[in-house]
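Standup notes
- HV: blocked on the assembly model, inputs below
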Amino acid sequence: MQVVSTKKLLIPILVFIFFIIFINRTEFLGIAKNNIIKVFEPVLSTSFKISQSTYSFASNFFRTSRDLRSENETLHAQLLEQTQLKAETTRLRMENTSLLNLLHYTSSTLNKISAQVIGVGTESTVQSLIIDRGLNDGVTIGDPIIAEGGILIGTVWKTQEKESIIELITDNQSRIGTSILNKDRSIGIATGSHGLSVEVEMIPQDEVITEGDIAITSGIEKSIPRGLIIGTVLSIKKEASEPFQTARLQLPIELNKLSWVAVLSQ
Amino acid sequence: MRHTLFQAFFLSFILIIAQQISSVLFAWHIIPLTEISLVILVFIIALGTENKLILLTACFTGLLLDLWSPSGFGTIALALTLTLSISIEIFHRALTNKSLSALLILGVTATFTYRIIIFLINSTQFLKNPESVWKALLDSMMKGGVQAVTHSMFLLILFVGSRLVSKRLHPHYVHSS
């Protein structure tokens, strides 16, 4: 068998790639990249939508009636709870409005830019999504991204002229200052757990957390306001030898079914 | 050469659409379970395709995927090209019998090689936060393990499919060629 060497081919290709990387920051390549993105965006967006609809259809199709019955029961219980909460929230909102009026408080200075999810990031080592808003729309790196209901789903990782890449909160490298709405108002750091869920680390051992407590952003980061919902506590990991405990969160939404999001821009 | 370049461009176009579809369809939560472009390119190696076409396709596909990648521009192009050139060498030096097991070994090796190269290129980000390097490496290898299984399944499907329509992966084709 003849041994085929790739060295002769590999060297010019690597030189070409390094050359492209080197000129990446020049205006010329920027224009070329934007034109390629413009050509591919409709194809990318359409293939994403088709595959997302197929995925949703398939996942609903394979659900058994028992799953649906148990989900129905859970939803009934949640509805009852939400009705009680709504009444309480309405009362608190009225109280809050009158107090804010007294303080002449102006609410958040962040702009909401609505964006469509047009794809999944092409590198599987980072949990990411692509949205159709970029530098031209005022999106900057680090801006928080929320889904319907003020639920934080991630932050902007990379921006291009008309598109941005979001790092999801489930990614291992994601770090968000978090506050848990328990009696102690515990604070910690929300970090992604193998891309599957979110864990709040660095919570002091002596603070009491219970399952169902809501975790929100603490507002410690300059670009992320306080009060965005991250999730609810699903379980608590506590070891006597460790100074801190960890809370595993359940996310309120399925990240792979998102179509529209909003960027909170400065 | 111009013909090969055109073929490589066309293949790259097909591969990035396939990659985007597979990222959603074959994902668990938002974790893509397959790098379909890598799987297809590995399979193309086993079909005995010209090395020039494989490496050019890897380079173009990588550069196109880099446009929507969270990592620095050029990361996927470098990783994909290096992985494919290593896979070509392995296939022609060690796995010459074109059997299913040779194809699966090649798929698993390519999966881990690709992830290791990506991890090494991105390792500069751990300079700020060195204690997270082990967690990230463990996570990357765990996902690599899952991907190795799914990639093997895809290669198995492609292998069976190709045997039904072509003789290229039959042992007698190797002897005659």
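- HV (later): unblocked. Chain A touches chain B through 56 residues (CB under 8 Å). The longest helix of chain A spans residues 65-103.
- Next: hand off to the docking folks.
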